From TrEMBL:
<dbReference type="InterPro" id="IPR025948">
    <property type="entry name" value="HTH-like_dom"/>
</dbReference>
<feature type="domain" description="Integrase catalytic">
    <location>
        <begin position="212"/>
        <end position="273"/>
    </location>
</feature>
<dbReference type="GO" id="GO:0015074">
    <property type="term" value="P:DNA integration"/>
</dbReference>
<dbReference type="InterPro" id="IPR036397">
    <property type="entry name" value="RNaseH_sf"/>
</dbReference>
<dbReference type="InterPro" id="IPR001584">
    <property type="entry name" value="Integrase_cat-core"/>
</dbReference>
<dbReference type="Pfam" id="PF00665">
    <property type="entry name" value="rve"/>
</dbReference>
<dbReference type="InterPro" id="IPR012337">
    <property type="entry name" value="RNaseH-like_sf"/>
</dbReference>
<dbReference type="Pfam" id="PF01527">
    <property type="entry name" value="HTH_Tnp_1"/>
</dbReference>
<dbReference type="Pfam" id="PF13276">
    <property type="entry name" value="HTH_21"/>
</dbReference>
<dbReference type="GO" id="GO:0004803">
    <property type="term" value="F:transposase activity"/>
</dbReference>
<comment type="function">
    <text>Involved in the transposition of the insertion sequence.</text>
</comment>
<dbReference type="GO" id="GO:0006313">
    <property type="term" value="P:DNA transposition"/>
</dbReference>
<feature type="domain" description="HTH-like">
    <location>
        <begin position="131"/>
        <end position="188"/>
    </location>
</feature>
<dbReference type="InterPro" id="IPR050900">
    <property type="entry name" value="Transposase_IS3/IS150/IS904"/>
</dbReference>
<protein>
    <submittedName>
        <fullName>Transposase</fullName>
    </submittedName>
</protein>
<dbReference type="InterPro" id="IPR048020">
    <property type="entry name" value="Transpos_IS3"/>
</dbReference>
<dbReference type="InterPro" id="IPR002514">
    <property type="entry name" value="Transposase_8"/>
</dbReference>
Length: 283
């Protein structure tokens, strides 16, 4: 292969075959010694014996196998792009005449029994796919009428009410295939556990959340921020009711009193002083 491609380098040929460049260089050197012969001049030291015919034939056979595997994998790549359920078996069926079922299954890593099972059940799979396509239309209608909120269970109930005999697993399969999903509400995280025996803080604002001038009335709140690892951070804020400006905030991994004090201290640094300004505490 190296000699049949003018201008090709050992490195490029080795990359095509999937072998180390030094290994290919050794193969070429051994083949050249075999072809040129090992003629020893009279009185000269004996030449190092080259590889036997059997070794050379084995090396060439291995090169052919690697070239065949490369060609098979290149052809298989476009089948796996679609990510269909039986794409590997479809590839074997389309190329078995040239490479054989055993060789194809060996290269792409599937059991021959899986391929033969797929071939035997192909008519049933085709009929099921056609039935899925038939169900897709009412699925889309119900999903659209619910403003995209209905999921598997509600769509299953609607179909059964309309007279369709269908399982929720089948509904989930078809919905996934056509790209439909219901609306999932985020689970609320309870951040406050009230103490029934505790003394409630007085309402200094009297539920009047307006202010005539800046730095006269403030409100505060605490919210939680979900993190990717499943834990939460907590954010405490202080807002001026006149300007609606967020004058102070603090963030921590707890909801202790220190979190609110840090937010008030940040607001005091921003405004210089909070003396005399009533504030509605976070609830």
């Amino acid at each position: 292969m190296y000699r049949s491609r003018p201008g090709a380098t050992i490195r490029s040929v080795a990359e095509d075959l999937g072998v180390n460049s030094e290994t290919l260089r050794s193969w070429i050197r051994l083949d050249e010694e075999r072809c040129s012969g090992s003629r020893v001049a009279t009185g000269a030291a004996p030449a190092v014996p080259g590889p036997s015919e059997g070794e050379t034939a084995a090396l060439r056979r291995r090169v052919r196998e690697l070239e065949e595997e490369r060609d098979i994998l290149r052809k298989a790549a476009k089948y796996f792009v679609g990510e269909t359920r039986w794409c590997a078996s479809e590839f074997v069926a389309d190329h078995q005449r040239r490479h054989g079922v055993k060789r194809l299954c060996q290269v792409i890593g599937i059991a021959r029994s899986s391929y033969y099972h797929w071939r035997a059940s192909a008519p049933d799979l085709a009929a099921r796919a056609a039935d899925d396509d038939r169900l897709a239309a009412p699925f889309r209608t119900i999903h659209r009428d619910s403003a995209g909120t209905y999921g598997v269970l509600r769509i299953t109930a609607e179909l059964r009410a309309a007279g369709h005999v269908v399982n929720h697993k089948r509904v989930a399969w078809v919905m996934r295939g056509i790209g439909l999903a219901g609306l999932r509400l985020r689970r609320r995280h309870r951040t406050t556990l009230g103490d029934p025996a505790g003394v409630k803080a007085p309402d200094l604002l009297g539920r009047d959340f307006t202010a005539e001038a800046p730095n006269t009335r403030y409100v505060g709140d605490i919210t939680y921020l979900p993190i990717a690892d499943g834990t939460f951070c907590y954010l405490a804020t202080v807002m001026d009711l006149c300007s609606r400006r967020l004058v102070g905030w603090a963030i921590a991994d707890h909801m202790r009193t220190e979190l609110v004090i840090d937010a008030l201290a940040a607001a005091e640094r921003t405004r210089g002083s909070l003396a005399g300004a009533p504030a509605e505490p976070p609830g």
